[in-house]
Design goal:
With 209 residues, the protein is an alpha/beta fold. Helices cover 51% and strands 14% of the residues. The strands form 2 sheets. Strands 4-3-5-6 form a 4-stranded parallel β-sheet. The protein has a two-stranded antiparallel ribbon with strand order 1-2. The chain is elongated. The chain starts with a helix and ends in a 21-residue tail after the last helix.
């Protein structure tokens, strides 16, 4: 019985007629650098040289690449029209998937704010920097609700603001800031879902007014 994962994957890659993720990754690398060595591909993709060799042979056999031997030490791997078409199809798929994911996260962010507004909360402080903080600020701008006021601070909010506003913590992890972890909430909220909650003061366990 062969328990070597590389050998098992290599056998699957060789037998399957589909272009798997490893093959697509190799196609991308070959499109950028056709004279890359199999050892370099092995290091970049994280697979054994033997598996890289099998995948390249399969790509050549199925018509995705052509192999050019300039000399024994210089081998070129060039994408065919079929290979370029597959690479473009894959790029379109992942771009579309990324756009759909972004739209979904934006909808969840909007819903988080609307849920809180429905509970009577109209003043907010966004804490943190980075993509999550940007998503929340974009939601406030997109909603453009005159009844809502919000501010954005990169680190800890002023103590006086904690009693007046809902703290939306856009940082990663548990930072001990009173209020709501945006990341944790977005991972659990469903589109059009209305939560029956009031934000909690993380330090005292009391509901914010």
């Amino acid at each position: 019985m062969n328990n070597n994962p590389d050998s098992i994957d290599a056998h699957s890659a060789h037998q399957s007629g589909d272009v798997d993720e490893n093959s697509l990754r190799i196609l991308d690398l070959l499109a950028e650098e056709p004279y890359v060595s199999q050892r370099e591909l092995s290091e970049k993709v994280g697979l054994s040289v033997g598996l890289i060799n099998l995948i390249i042979k399969r790509l050549a056999t199925t018509g995705y690449i052509k192999i050019s031997n300039l000399n024994p030490k210089k081998v070129g791997y060039f994408l065919t029209k079929m290979g370029l078409s597959e690479q473009m199809r894959r790029s379109y798929y992942y771009l579309n998937k990324t756009i759909q994911t972004y739209k979904n996260v934006m909808n969840r962010t909007d819903q988080l704010i609307l849920n809180l507004k429905e509970k009577g909360h109209k003043k907010f402080v966004i804490v943190g920097e980075g993509e999550i903080a940007d998503l929340v600020t974009q939601s406030f701008r997109r909603l453009n609700d005159p009844a809502i006021t919000w501010t954005h601070v990169p680190a800890e909010p002023p103590k006086e603001s904690e009693k007046e506003a809902v703290i939306l913590d856009a940082r990663f992890g548990d930072n001990g800031t009173p209020g709501i972890s945006v990341l944790s909430t977005l991972m659990n909220i469903k589109q059009h879902q209305v939560f029956d909650f009031s934000p909690l003061d993380a330090s005292q366990g009391e509901q914010l007014p």
